[in-house]
Design brief:
Malic enzyme N-terminal domain-containing protein, Malic_N_dom_sf, two-stranded antiparallel sheet, 39% helix, alpha/beta, 4-stranded parallel β-sheet, Malic_OxRdtase, Aminoacid_DH-like_N_sf, 8% strand
């Protein structure tokens, strides 16, 4: 993060003085940003695309990297996005378009006036929110049934990874891999799956990461959870789906699912690491196989009852 005194590294927010401003990752005012140039444009949480005003283009070294000499409004960007979305020939293409948008410009994807941290203020308050205003029409595209199609085609449509991928063959690195996602106070909500029983379409292996991603999108849209405080996770334990095992493009472990004691130890390792690294995060088990899901959640609930509660969060001055 930039120093407080460096005015040239502050990106404008949407106002200040709200009762949520003291919370972690509150974005009710200017944000310190250490990025500039192409690195800034490649960061989906800071990138505004054509909406960067002239003074920010100058401060962040964006002249020559963006068309035009002034900012377009968020409303103009949203209108362009709606037209692009409508031009896609089918729902899977629309789903892929929205995923690409989220990877480039998260604010435009959620189409918000500000990104709000945990709490339940009206996160999506603009009247022209792309997803919020069209949630009835777009719900089936960003979630079931179209997300099921995207999951089935994950390895064929893959462009950029999103989330944390943990392998049963790399159990000793689970904690180190999880630790890359921030400090103890940075994560509030973890959705984890092993991809065995996805949306009624069965074993989708590593493609199950998209169900974790989709659940967290809904948490932001419908509950106001800050998207940068969420962590989607997939536990890659192999797959029993013959189509995936025979697919050279499949990105996950091309081996039969690990079960029994080795599977249990892997899940235990993940939960122990998640609790240690992000002690206040809610861990949501999603679309596990029926037997494994019940056993895993029951075992972890029992362990949780036998452990002391996590320390209170740090207060901010």
């Amino acid at each position: 993060m930039a120093s407080d005194g460096d005015a040239n590294t502050r990106s404008s927010g949407s106002g200040s003085g709200t009762r949520f401003g003291h919370l972690p990752l509150s974005t009710t005012g200017p944000l310190d940003c250490a990025l500039s140039g192409t690195a800034l444009l490649n960061d989906p949480f800071f990138n505004k695309g054509s909406a960067f005003p002239l003074e920010e283009r100058r401060a962040f070294g964006l002249h020559g990297l963006l068309p035009g000499s002034g900012a377009q409004t968020l409303e103009t960007q949203a209108r362009r996005a709606r037209e692009q979305y409508a031009s896609r020939p089918d729902d899977l293409a629309k789903n892929t378009f929205l995923t690409s948008m989220k990877e480039q410009n998260a604010v435009l994807y959620y189409k918000v006036s500000r990104l709000v941290p945990v709490s339940l203020p009206p996160l999506l308050s603009r009247q022209d929110c792309l997803l919020q205003d069209n949630i009835k029409d777009m719900f089936s595209v960003v979630y079931t049934p179209t997300e099921g199609d995207a999951i089935q085609n994950y390895s064929r449509l893959f462009r950029r990874p999103e989330g944390c991928f943990l392998s049963v063959n790399d159990k000793e690195r689970v904690r180190a891999n999880l630790a890359q996602w921030g400090n103890p106070e940075d994560i509030d909500y973890i959705v984890v799956t092993d991809g065995e029983e996805i949306l009624g379409i069965g074993d989708q292996g590593v493609g199950g990461i998209l169900i974790s991603v989709a659940k967290l999108v809904l948490a932001t849209l419908c509950a106001g959870v800050h998207p940068n405080r969420c962590l989607p996770v997939v536990l890659d334990c192999g797959t029993d789906n013959p189509a995936l095992l025979d697919d050279d493009l499949y990105l996950g472990l091309r081996e039969r699912r690990v079960r029994g004691a080795r599977y249990d130890a892997f899940v235990d390792e993940f939960v122990a690491a998640a609790r240690a690294l992000y002690p206040r995060a809610y861990i949501h088990f999603e679309d596990f196989g029926l037997g494994n899901g019940e056993q895993a959640t029951s075992a972890q609930q029992q362990r949780a009852l036998n452990q002391p509660p996590p320390p209170p969060p740090k207060t901010q001055n």
